[in-house]
Structures are given as C-alpha cells and as structure tokens.
Design brief:
By secondary structure, this protein is an alpha/beta fold. Helix content is about 40%, strand content about 20%. It has a seven-stranded mixed β-sheet, with helices on both faces.
C-alpha cells in the first residue's frame, strides 16, 4: 500500500504539467495574472528594509518576478527555477530546471526564496515548505503567493453541474488548493519563524467561459491531476458549462467574472539551524 507521501507526490502528472507549461511558453504565455501577483509580492518585499544578495525565483513562469527581483538594490544574483525548459529559455540569468516538489539546492543556499503561483503544483506542500526552509540561509526570507481555495469557484461549480447533467458524474478537473486558515500552521510545521499569511482576491472578467479556458491554457494552468479523465470534454458538456456559468454568475454587462484567491505567505528561516 502506498504511503501518504507517495500519494502526495503522485497527485499530479509531472510530465503533463511540464508539457502544459512548455506549450504555454511556446505560444506566448498569458502572463498578466502572474505579473500582477508578482507586483503585489514585490510590494510586500519592499516593506522589508533589507537587501537580499542571492535570490531564488521558484516557478519562474515568464520571468516577471525574476526581473523585479533583479532590479532590487543589493541583489547580486537571481536564480530562476521552473519545470519548463521553454519558460526558462525566456528568462535571463542563471536557470535551473526544477520541480516544486523536488528542490535541488544545497542547504543554506539563498538569502531569499520567492515564488509566484507555482506552489499549488506541489503534491506535498508541507514537504515543499520544509525543503524551502532548508535551502534558506539562517535569517533568510521566504515569500510566496499561491492560489487559495476559492480560486475559480465559478468555473468549478459550472463544470461539476454540467458533467452531472450531461455525463451522469463528475471528474477531477481543478487542483486542490490551500485554505488561508491552514497556511500559517503549515509554515509553523515547516519551522519557519514569524509566519504570516493573508489573502487577496483578483477578479478578471471575460466575454464567456471559453475565453477563460483559453487563458488558463495560455497560462499553463490546465488540468494536470493524475486522476484526470484522459478523454476530451464532450462538446455538449462544455456548452452546458458555459451556459450555466453565464446564468449563475453573469454580470449586468453580459460578461462573466473569474475569481482568483491569492494567498500570500511570509516566513523566516531561524537564525540558527534547528
């Protein structure tokens, strides 16, 4: 019988995740959400009156965070890490192909580890946090933004109801997400000092559900669950989902909203090794 750790690490199809991100990079990634969240993360970092000589951008995507970190006073080097070689080809500087579940750096390597919308792809988030603390220097800072539990609640609701009506049952389509109430506890469990977690919501509007789905594909955020259904979604199911989305959540101007809940995590590596 597989252990809970083994099940966590196989939650996602790592090859599918990499291919989805490669495809997004090749076709001009939709980077607006990552760029907006990177800006908000850097605003929080600017409140810390300290310079970070060596920084890691974990889950670099199209490089918005790496570029912002490189512009900060005192930064000497930014290492960009991402499972997608295609994304890394579009980011300058030092680059490492790395998965959020398997962080391939030595203990005490970085003054700062920052991550934008990547750690929701960690099958074992508590384990990933432990690895991040390990690679921080004593007194180093971890700062991250991840998707929270109400992200894409409208799309999830419409898809589940459409599949129940058209196919008689649903299938896993959206990754499990962390809840704000649990995040500070996970940081403490990973032995971060002074953990802080807060949430913000970003609402993006679209002409229809198909436009939202195209953007998710262009972000590299399409379904990579190992337990996902491998056959294409039926046209009738897709049409039903779009109709339900518009009926349940449509705005007065005819557009639809898509909610992205962003959880911001902050924690410090203890000054002495535990």
């Amino acid at each position: 019988m597989a252990s809970s750790e083994d099940r966590a690490l196989t939650l996602f199809d790592r090859r599918a995740l990499r291919l989805h991100r490669d495809r997004a990079a090749r076709h001009g990634a939709a980077g607006f959400l990552h760029a907006e969240v990177a800006d908000r993360l850097v605003e929080r970092l600017d409140d810390v009156k300290r310079e970070f000589r060596l920084a890691l951008d974990l889950g670099a995507h199209h490089g918005a965070l790496s570029r912002a970190l490189a512009r900060r006073p005192g930064t000497e080097r930014v290492v960009a890490a991402d499972p997608s070689l295609e994304f890394l080809d579009r980011v300058g500087g030092m680059r490492v192909a790395a998965d959020p579940d398997l962080v391939p750096f030595q203990n005490g390597s970085f003054d700062l580890v920052a991550s934008v919308l990547a750690l929701h792809w960690a099958g074992d988030l508590p384990g990933a946090l432990v690895q991040i603390r390990r690679i921080l220097k004593p007194g180093g800072l971890f700062l991250a933004a991840i998707f929270g539990g109400s992200t894409l609640i409208e799309l999830r609701t419409a898809m589940i109801e459409a599949e129940l009506v058209e196919e008689g049952g649903g299938s896993p389509r959206v990754s499990p997400a962390a809840e704000l109430g649990d995040i500070a506890g996970l940081l403490l469990r990973a032995r971060f000092a002074m953990p802080v977690a807060d949430a913000e919501k970003i609402t993006v509007t679209y002409a229809d559900a198909l436009g939202l789905m195209r953007d998710l594909r262009a972000m590299g955020e399409t379904n990579a669950l190992t337990a996902r259904r491998r056959i294409p979604l039926r046209r009738a199911t897709l049409a039903r989902a779009a109709l339900l989305y518009a009926e349940r959540f449509g705005l007065s101007d005819g557009r639809i909203p898509a909610t992205f809940e962003i959880l911001f995590l902050t924690g410090w590596a203890p000054q002495t090794r535990s």
